[in-house]
Amino acid sequence: SPITGYSEAxxxxxxxxxxxxxxxxxxxxxxxxxxxxxxxxxxxxxxNEFRILRKNGDVGWVMASVRSFALNGKPARLTMIVDITExxxxxxxxxxxxxxxxxxxxxxxxxxxxxxxxxxxxxxxHVLEQVMGYEYGAVLLxxxxxxxxIPFTLSNQGRGPEFVAQDKAYxxxxxxxxxxxxxxxxxxxxx
Length: 191
Prior knowledge:
5 strands, two-stranded antiparallel ribbon
């Protein structure tokens, strides 16, 4: 099957019990129960979305449309399976983006209450760390006369104001300059 990566001739596809091996373990029990209901002759009609384990090890998503019926007095089913992996990935990306936008909105509400440039810079650092996954943030100001980058505010990394003061002093002592080192290059290029 193009969806699973297994051919019809491979052992996994030959025995009905083994067909469930391509179903993700977390989704398997529900589908085994559905199969049992069909075998008992229950009339089933609906859509099911579940994960599969592809031959190459990837996890994919499928949607199965199932309709059970009697054929010559025996339980039968008609199943159509569609690969919805890309749709699920797009949905996950949309959820991630919605979370980012919600965090930005929340930050903007906080920004409306802030009064000092330092509070504003701290909130920006906090948003970058929380939403974008940055480990450390800093706002450095450029002294145009000397080309030095002067620490304005830094991430407190949950350690409090004393840590920030020590970190500011350390960075200031390093003499970070525009265009020199990684920090200076980022400040110069914006990348």
